[in-house]
Specification:
homodimer, 672 residues, alpha/beta, Molybdenum Cofactor Biosythetic Enzyme, Chain A, Molybdopterin biosynthesis moea protein, domain 2, Molybdopterin biosynthesis moeA protein, domain 3, 10-stranded mixed β-sheet, 38 strands, 24% helix
């Protein structure tokens, strides 16, 4: 029988419950152990295993709070500005003794007079420069008992609670522990987690890849997650897809760690051994969880062997191989387990309510972890869904948070309010500039420059017209656009009038750039003109409808009366210049229209056809906001201009120029 | 001339500006260097020194997104449920080839049919169990080009921006860097910070202290702070107060680190060498900053010696000796400097607006860093000021945040709205139970037990009556009270009627406990009755007015017609049982009234006088809230009860009992 019968998704809550039940049964559903460590700076972040009570008081004696003279308050009675009192500098009641801050008070004293309130006198009762060892002192004010004294226990009294058990140590806590007499501290042992990558197709980070090689970085992400959650990860080298070898490594890992993460092989493919490994070495109780991405999760327990220092069973999680699935499996299953083992409550991420920018669908029956970019446009906090692909790790990198759509919800309309669990600190969301519309590589460069100016540029590529629609829906701060009006030969203005008739906008040129054909090196098919696209052997790759490049192509085709149906691949659409270039580089297509920089990026040849203007469309409301000022300043920043000019096919001379949008249908009023 | 002339406070902003100017002049006002590190889990938290662009695309070939059969879409045309198409399993256009998820697509293929949509057949065209190596496959649906394929560059396209410079690496970032072909990464070098404790009176953590010894833990706190901010701290052993020795150590530290923190000696006392050390080894430009706590700060630059590998000047900060001052100097001066050196914006702490619970005064002219406990009582977020003492590190441990009162503000009334920079995550503030009133050690134990039940108990000791006043002002969730009504002999009820006439409250007994005299071991003065307090040789230490213990004492003195004026020390007040005990243990007083547990804590003898009831007064509104449920459950938790009962003088039998508060002035209505 096929392994695929094992893969049967169960609800997330049930999967978590089975894991909890299994761990409770073997008494591994709480802290795993306690260790004593020295109280030094490495104790930061560790969790106290028990309450700490003060061993000694702090201060542990009555201490002077100032540099000055210790006295008994009785000896100062009657001292006033006009009737000073003189005290001999002798260490006895009735006298005065110099003390530094922190010095113990003499037994006979109960107050300190700060040095600046004292007149030091020599043996002729004349003022002396011997501030600290005069013969007598003269004072002109009486003192109250215990003034300028830090009494024993002012900070902490012996036996009082210093910190509760379960507390995660911060820098000041170390001070309180040390000050109350501690020098070692009982902390919860860090859970040890083995991360075991398997797969014959995997190659280690840094390998020069060949076709079919997959760079193995899930173990890196999982190990880094484990460490950042307070565990101690141990990365294993890649094990090829050999059943016995995997069994051997899993057994070895289980024998000396608290949790085994077996990466990939958790699905039901030809080389997916994980389920069988778990059944062989212990028991499998979950294979498949109704969660996206990441449903082929395996949960089970592995028996420790006789070689192990300690017996019993150890949990194993079969982590799916797609990188987004792997990272989310870490968040969903591993993070709560480590928290539990550290005696900590599960992490309570900050959340924000946000408005969904576009309609989404969600697999019925699955809990759906949707990555979103979050930013504030005008008064509204917006959540823009990012790529749903479980192979797209860059979507997790770009994500400001995760919206969890419960099982049973099949989708949400644009404008719905969703709760986002934030990765990005809430304060940073206010620094996010949402750019939408056409893609240009100068926006990537802009993101890099803005990062150093306390702004985050989150750009979504939906084509020029998509960008104007988004502005109309108040879902972005600006849109990149290069939409040619076939009637006037002018860029963008006609489209702004059409899409944003009631919005005051500024139209600012970013660059002029060359558009042309991207073709493979040497242009083997000699594609030089639009007419060549209709040749039978030429496979074209197009941009999506609404993209400025598409409008330009259609305009040029129309002028030349070339029927799009004659172009093979005209209906194959990609959403960015780079994606078009990638399609050509990989042989998926022979030719696409785009910009020179994209061609250069993928080592393609470029056949220039014409120059076009690429503008930023910015609603006045945002143009005048503080949020966008660093971006607008960048247009006049020499370093940014230089970086853009260094790319082929870019003309930065018009950068920052405002294009005046003439007012339609309004004539100057004649008042005469 | 005295060193004291140096100490002259300047405004905080000016001090920070002088430091910035000095660092700009030597080109140390930006990142200090770049280093290349391997891309492994230790890269977490490091800051990218430059933008990273993708070296290779991910995937770097067209990859199958499923386990299934690679085909060209043309070969599937016409396949429908009733008109299936059969394809030979051959690797060529027109055929089908089995692929696992992640496998490269054959050159001739442009789509994948998932295995579950395929009928595998043997050479007699009969169904076969050979799922992956049948002779032919039968399909009943056509596929579109590129379906179930992850095209080259789906995740990242070579040359695109992966992460901007200045980005602090998180686990998923490591995946994106590795997946786009990175194996090493250029990061900002960690600033090296020397932490140099000085002081003849200092002893290392863990020393058995004698009178006058001060446990040196500032270097521990400072080093832990530095590391947690992304620097690399180096702690030096304690240097005694010897000018030449300190100079030598400072020079040594300056020669191989980026910043020297010279702890203590920054004031103007007899052994405060720091200013002179800085002047000798370089230049001093700030001695004294108008900030509390922590004003005797020193800022300067030290020249590196000829022995140093690199020349130039290194900043030095003379950090004040009081622990709160030291930790805040770290936050005010060191944290922003490390952020600057890491190329990061200064930390932007979460803030919350809160209502001040009591009037505060602030030193005119100083920026005042006031530590506060923060919690939500009813609809209001409250900030309760904690101890202002710069020696009270426990106040920083308890602080949920800092309110910064600008220079010039001399105080604020209770009820004022203040902005608090939070240490505690905002989500945790909602879990804070504010207990106020009389102190009892069972509340310390309660804090420990509640910490494991996702609640934080923040207790302020203001005496029983102070607690009822706070409840009236809606500044706490509950008050501990043991106020005897001399008229009725009943506890608390009369006071509740007086202070909370319009509030529905529950009165729940926590414990019965013994009150008596705390005296030194062996009771050398044989203090056995209230009459003994009036003896001339007995020095008494009292509780503050409003404290239940004080009410009890006054009641008993009144019954016996003993004049308080006859008791020496009657006007000396402490605010907690433990503080009274500490006063006796240290010899400051001979006798005080309090509870047995406090006496035991400080190894005093206890002379029981009577038993009293200690209740919790809880407004109904809070009693019924989810917030307090874990606390109320604790009263019936065997482990908590046991822990309280284990303390001497405690009777837990009435724990959790509700005391009925009879309604006044309402008689049953006679309806007949």
């Amino acid at each position: 029988m096929s392994e695929s019968i094992y893969l049967h998704d169960i609800p997330l809550a049930e999967a978590q419950q089975r894991l909890e039940d299994a761990l409770r049964a073997v008494e591994r559903w709480g802290i795993l152990g306690v260790e004593e460590i020295p109280l030094d700076e490495n104790a930061i972040g560790r969790v106290l295993a028990e309450a700490v009570f003060a061993r000694i008081s702090s201060p542990h004696y009555h201490a002077s709070a100032m540099d000055g003279f210790a006295v008994h308050h009785h000896a100062t009675e009657g001292a006033q500005p006009n009737t000073p009192v003189t005290l001999p500098c002798r260490s006895e009641e009735g006298g005065a003794q110099y003390v530094d801050t922190g010095d113990p008070l003499p037994e006979w004293a109960n107050a300190v007079i700060p040095i600046e309130n004292v007149e030091p006198l020599d043996d002729q009762d004349q003022p002396t420069a011997e501030l600290r060892s005069p013969r007598t002192i003269r004072i002109r004010a009486a003192v109250t008992p215990w003034s300028h004294v830090r009494p024993l226990g002012e900070d902490m009294v012996a036996t009082q609670l210093v910190l509760p058990g379960g507390h995660r140590l911060r820098p000041v806590d170390l001070g309180a522990l040390a000050g109350s007499g501690g020098s070692r501290v009982q902390v919860v042992r860090k859970p040890r987690v083995a991360v075991l990558p398997t797969g014959t197709e995997l190659v280690p980070v840094g390998t020069a890849v060949k076709r079919g090689d997959i760079i193995e970085y899930n173990s890196l992400v999982l190990a880094a997650q484990v460490n950042s959650w307070g565990g101690q990860a141990e990365r294993y080298p890649i094990t090829p897809d050999q059943f016995e070898l995997i069994c051997q490594k899993v057994q070895e890992a289980a024998d000396h760690t608290d949790l085994v993460l077996l990466n990939a092989g958790s699905s039901a493919g030809a080389e997916d051994f994980s389920a069988r490994v778990v059944e062989t070495l212990g028991r499998l109780f979950v294979h498949g969880v109704a969660v996206r991405p990441g449903h082929p999760v395996i949960l089970g327990m592995v028996r420790r062997s006789e070689q192990a220092a300690e017996g019993g069973e150890v949990p194993i999680i079969g982590v799916p191989g797609y990188p987004v699935s792997a990272a989310l499996t870490g968040e969903i299953f591993v993070a709560p387990l480590i928290a539990r083992w550290l005696g900590q409550p599960a992490a309570d991420p900050a959340v924000v309510q946000a408005t969904l920018t576009r309609k989404i669908t969600s697999p019925a029956g699955d809990v759906d972890y949707m990555r979103v970019a979050v930013g504030k446009v005008g008064p509204r906090m917006l959540a823009a869904p990012l790529s749903r692909g479980s192979g797209v790790i860059s979507s997790l990198v770009k994500a400001d948070g995760i919206a969890i759509l419960p099982a049973g919800m099949q989708g949400l309309p644009a404008g719905a309010t969703i709760e986002v669990r934030l990765y990005t600190p809430a304060a940073d969301l206010e620094k996010t500039i949402f750019a939408i519309g056409s893609h240009d590589i100068s926006l990537d460069l802009m993101a890099q420059f803005l990062a150093q100016r306390s702004r985050r540029l989150s750009s979504a590529n939906v084509g020029s017209q998509g960008g104007l629609v988004a502005l109309r829906r108040q879902e972005a701060h600006l849109a990149g656009s290069h939409l040619l009006d076939p009637e006037t030969g002018e860029y963008n203005i006609a489209y702004i009038r059409q899409y944003l008739p009631n919005t005051a906008v500024r139209l600012i040129t970013l660059v002029n750039r060359q558009q042309g054909f991207m073709v493979r090196r040497g242009n083997p098919l000699r594609i030089l003109s639009l007419e060549d696209l209709a040749r039978a052997e030429v496979a074209f790759i197009n941009r999506q409808r609404g993209a400025g490049t598409r409008v330009l192509l259609d305009y040029e085709l129309g002028k030349k009366l070339i029927d799009p149906a004659s172009i093979s691949g005209y209906n194959q659409e990609e959403f960015t210049h780079l994606a078009v270039a990638a399609a050509i580089a990989s042989g998926r297509a022979d030719c696409g229209m785009g910009i020179a920089a994209a061609a250069q990026a993928l080592e393609l040849d470029f056949v220039p056809l014409l120059e076009e203007r690429y503008d930023l469309v910015i609603p006045l409301e945002h143009y005048e906001s503080g949020l966008l000022q660093p971006l607008l300043e960048l247009l006049f920043d020499g370093k940014y201009q230089q970086a853009v000019a260094a790319m082929p096919g870019y003309d930065i001379r018009p950068m920052g120029t405002e294009v005046i949008i003439p007012v339609l249908g309004e004539l100057p009023t004649d008042q005469s």
